[in-house]
Every structure is written in C-alpha cells, then in structure tokens.
Design brief:
Elements lengths: L9 H6 L1 E9 L3 E8 L3 E2 L9 H15 L3 H17 L3 H17 L3 H12 L8 H16 L3 H6 L1 H15 L2 E2 L1 H20 L7 H19 L4 H20 L4 H6 L4 H18 L5 H17 L3 H18 L5 H47 L1
Parallel strand pairs: 3-4
Antiparallel strand pairs: 1-2
Helix pairs in contact: 2-3, 2-4, 3-4, 4-5, 4-6, 5-6, 6-8, 6-9, 8-9, 9-10, 9-11, 10-11, 11-13, 11-14, 13-14, 14-15, 15-16
C-alpha cells in the first residue's frame, strides 16, 4: 500500500459547501455541518434499499455485535461464494470488509489487515469502488489504532488514511460511511490528545468533539434503525469518555473530571439507555458497562466502579470481544488498588481516632482524680 499519496486538503471540501446547518446534539452540543453540492446518490447493494442485501448485512452485523462469530463466519463465507458466482464484486468486497470486522473483535490483527488491504488494492474495480475502498481505509484505521505502536508513534499515518477515505467518499451521499468515518476520526484525535500535556489538549479535544458531532449528524441522515443505533450509541459512549477523561488508565489517574463533566457524561449514557434500551447488542452493552465503571470512579464510588469493570470484562471474555480484554483488566486492577488504598486509609483513620479518644479519656479521668 502506498502511504505517500497526497491527502485531500480539508479546505478544498469546505469551498464546495453549499450551506451550513446547525444541528443540536443532546440539547447542548452544536456542530456546523458542511454539505458539499450534488453528491451522488448510492444505489444497488450499498444503498440499504434492496431487501436482499440489507437483510444479509443486518444479520451479519447482529451476529458480529452479539459475539456469534461461528454463525457469522459460516454465513459470510457462503455469501462471498454466492456473490462471486453472480459476479457482484461490489458485494463481495463489502462482505470481505464485514468479515474483517469479526477478526478485529477477536483481536486477530493480521487477518483483518490482510482482508482490508486486498479490498484497497483490488483490481479490476467494481461499481462504487470508491465507497468500498473508503470504507476499507477507515476500518483499517479503526483496527490500527488499537495497536499501541500506531496509536502512539504513527498517528500521522492514521490521519493520512482517513484523509484518503474522505477523498474517496467526497462525491457520494452515503451517510452510513460518513458517520463511521467521522467517528473513527474522532477516536484518533482522542488517542492523540491523551499523549499531550494537560494544558495542551484543548484544540485536539474540540477536534474530536467536532468529529463526533458530525458522526451523529450523518447517522441521522440514514433512515435505517441499525445504522442509527450503532453509530449514535458508539458516539455517545465516546462523548461520555471525553467528559470523564478516562479513555486510558493514564488519563484516569490524572482524575481531571469536574462535577459538570460528570453530569454531561451521565446525559450521554442516559441517551443510550433511554433511546435504544433492550435493543443494545452485547458488544455495545459491554462498552456501556466499561464507561459506567469510569463514571462511578469519577464519582468516588470505587466498589461500583470495580463491579462494573468486572461485569464488562466477563462479558468480553464470554463473547470473545478480545480487543477489550486488556483495557478492562487494567481497569479492574486499578479500581481494586484504589479500594485497597481507601481501605488502608480508613483503617488508619479509625486507629488514629481510637488512640485520640483513648488519650482524651485518660486525660479527662486523670484531671478529675486530681481535682477530687
């Protein structure tokens, strides 16, 4: 893959904007959404309008997000073979991208990367190849940012791939892809922000917030329930993490959370539960428990924080959401240490109080006996 290509400059897209719309998010967040003129309406298997394709993709997504990976693999392998025979190569590449996502959930980086690279470098090019390649690029970034080496030392490469994805999508009206692209872009800004000194994070934090607002906006332009639920629930989780400053254990140790941050985080978590309720898939529910554990920690409720982190860890272990296992174990251990430290302080305080009361009592009795 050539990573030296010239990325599209953001200002070039801005110049083609026809208008700006101000979109309210959570009654307190607004974003100026740029809408380029005359985007191409997507048709065919990527449109979400043909039941044959949409039903298949919806089923695969449900299997994936609920940890049913064996069922997912059987169905996606059958479907790839089926559409190869029908020479629908756009659908074949779309299914390969879908297949890479299960590898990502299970932390199988090499297989995910191989599949996505095969899509990016495909030849000959099928219909809507720009959209398919754009999707492969931003999902490649989503996989890469989970690796510490990319997250910490190759951020420029991640941003370059995201710009390439944006360039490929530029002329198309595909809300699902724009929403996930901006969500992934916001996550990379979060990663970058976490490496900066506390007083240098404001610009990066606002860039991440802006990306998440755009992701919410674009998800609302797609009338499919599955798209709205997945993108909006994930983005509201990211908003909550931004307010709690707990995207990593290192940030959690800084404990920068204010009372207003806690209230804002609670709003976002409440939106997920009230809007999507019982329809939340297991992967999202696991991430919700993880974020709730951070909320409890910021409120000083260490036992509840540890319990929620343990619930999330058991959930990830049971359903093979392996990419989250390490971070959840870190949280469990961190909150346990906080509990132990608090316990030692409480024991010491009780002992100190007992000693003070003892000497106070002895002194009082001694003084009384001398007076008598």
């Amino acid at each position: 893959m050539d990573d030296q290509a010239e990325p599209l400059n953001e200002t070039r897209e801005s110049k083609q904007a026809e208008r700006e719309e101000v979109v309210a998010v959570c009654n307190c967040l607004t974003a100026h959404i740029e809408l380029p003129i005359n985007r191409i309406k997507v048709r065919g298997c990527l449109s979400g309008k043909i039941s044959e394709f949409e039903k298949l993709l919806k089923t695969l997504e449900s299997y994936q997000d609920n940890g049913m990976f064996k069922k997912h693999d059987r169905l996606v392998n059958w479907a790839i073979h089926h559409y190869e025979e029908r020479k629908n190569f756009t659908m074949v590449l779309t299914l390969k991208i879908e297949k890479s996502a299960t590898y990502s959930y299970q932390d199988n980086w090499n297989h995910a990367k191989k599949l996505l690279n095969s899509v990016i470098n495909c030849d000959p090019l099928p219909e809507y190849s720009d959209i398919v390649k754009a999707r492969a690029y931003y999902l490649l970034v989503a996989h890469m940012r989970r690796k510490e080496e990319y997250r910490k030392s190759k951020t420029d490469l991640l941003f370059k791939f995201l710009e390439r994805s944006k360039c490929l999508l530029h002329n198309y009206d595909s809300p699902e892809d724009w929403a996930e692209l901006y969500q992934t872009n916001g996550c990379v800004w979060m990663d970058y922000m976490s490496q900066l000194p506390i007083d240098k994070r404001n610009v990066e934090e606002e860039k991440a917030m802006d990306c998440f607002r755009r992701a919410i906006y674009h998800s609302k332009q797609d009338d499919r329930e599955r798209v709205q639920m997945k993108r909006q629930s994930y983005v509201h989780l990211k908003f909550a993490m931004m307010h709690l400053h707990c995207s990593t254990i290192a940030l959690a140790q800084e404990n920068l959370c204010t009372l207003n941050d806690i209230k804002e985080a609670e709003k976002h978590l409440d939106i997920i539960q009230s809007k999507f309720g019982d329809t939340i898939p297991k992967a999202t529910r696991m991430l919700l428990s993880k974020t709730q554990s951070d909320l409890f920690y910021c409120q000083g409720q260490y036992q509840q924080a540890k319990d929620k982190a343990e619930d999330a860890h058991e959930h990830a272990l049971h359903h093979q959401f392996n990419t989250e296992l390490n971070t959840l174990k870190e949280r469990k251990d961190f909150y346990l240490k906080k509990l132990e430290t608090r316990g030692r302080i409480q024991v010491f305080f009780c002992w100190f109080l007992f000693v003070c009361l003892f000497f106070l009592k002895v002194g009082t009795h001694g003084g009384t006996s001398r007076i008598v």
